């Protein structure tokens, strides 16, 4: 199937049409991104800084680039001038670096805190205690050049939809709890990034506001 057919199919199965589709273009060539762009997609997700930089330089300026991968502090400076949203922030140290680099380019960079919800050791993210430490600490208040716009999570990679649904539901509950609570000035809980090619329907049913979809749009990735 073509990118166009895939996109139509995906959009038609969205249980929440308001949910933002972030097209995950990692490992995909410029030509594939251009094709999706010409079909109206403006939000693209990459997980490597170098790759994002190369693509950003060649593609139209109105693309909103989402950093969805695990971001290293020493690379923040490269994407700070243009990145639209950083999804996977999992430490205060990284928040401080994003703030520092955002200040240099006179921006406020929106970030999502990645929460650990899966049963897999390999996945990144904060647990609830670490999240609490960040929220209630003094340092977060000083970071004027970031905005915490919400949470992000990845469910366990399994065919068991009951497990996946339970994990997404737990993240949504945490999200709503935070929404209803007094938070530092630079928090604005409005986005919940959850759902990928295999589980975006469940994620939407459980309250996702943005899904990150790669293979269902572009086909299998070719890791060279
Ligand atoms: C690669 C990736 C995706 C997209 O995965 P697909 O299964 O191809 O849709 C989503 N989120 C993150 C964080 C990723 O690294």
From TrEMBL:
Residues 2-221 form the Alanine racemase N-terminal domain. Keywords: Pyridoxal phosphate. Its cofactor is pyridoxal 5'-phosphate. One of its GO terms (molecular function) is pyridoxal phosphate binding. InterPro entries: Ala_racemase_N, PLP-binding_barrel, PyrdxlP_homeostasis. Coiled coil: none annotated. PROSITE patterns: UPF0001 (PS01211). Pfam families: Ala_racemase_N. The modification N6-(pyridoxal phosphate)lysine is found at residue 26. Pyridoxal 5'-phosphate (PLP)-binding protein, which is involved in PLP homeostasis. HAMAP family: PLP_homeostasis. Belongs to the pyridoxal phosphate-binding protein YggS/PROSC family. PANTHER family: PROLINE SYNTHETASE CO-TRANSCRIBED BACTERIAL HOMOLOG PROTEIN, PYRIDOXAL PHOSPHATE HOMEOSTASIS PROTEIN. This is Pyridoxal phosphate homeostasis protein.
């Amino acid at each position: 199937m073509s990118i166009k057919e895939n996109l139509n199919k995906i959009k038609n199965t969205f249980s929440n049409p308001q949910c933002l589709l972030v097209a995950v273009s990692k490992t995909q060539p410029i030509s594939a991104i251009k094709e999706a762009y010409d079909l109206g997609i403006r939000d693209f997700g990459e997980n490597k800084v170098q790759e994002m930089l190369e693509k950003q330089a060649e593609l139209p300026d109105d693309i909103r680039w989402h950093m969805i991968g695990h971001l290293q502090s020493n690379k923040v400076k490269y994407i700070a001038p243009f990145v639209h949203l950083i999804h996977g922030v999992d430490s205060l140290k990284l928040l401080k670096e994003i703030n520092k680099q955002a200040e240099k380019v006179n921006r406020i960079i929106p970030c999502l805190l990645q929460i650990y919800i899966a049963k897999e050791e390999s996945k990144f993210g904060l647990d609830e205690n670490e999240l609490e430490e960040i929220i209630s600490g003094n340092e977060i208040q000083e970071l004027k050049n970031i905005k915490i716009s919400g949470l992000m999570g990845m469910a366990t990679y399994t065919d068991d939809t009951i497990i996946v649904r339970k994990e997404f539901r737990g993240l949504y509950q945490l999200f709503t709890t935070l929404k209803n609570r007094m938070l530092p000035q630079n928090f604005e809980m409005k986005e919940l990034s959850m759902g990928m090619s295999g589980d975006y329907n469940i994620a939407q049913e459980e309250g996702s506001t943005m899904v990150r979809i790669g293979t269902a749009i572009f086909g299998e990735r070719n890791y060279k």
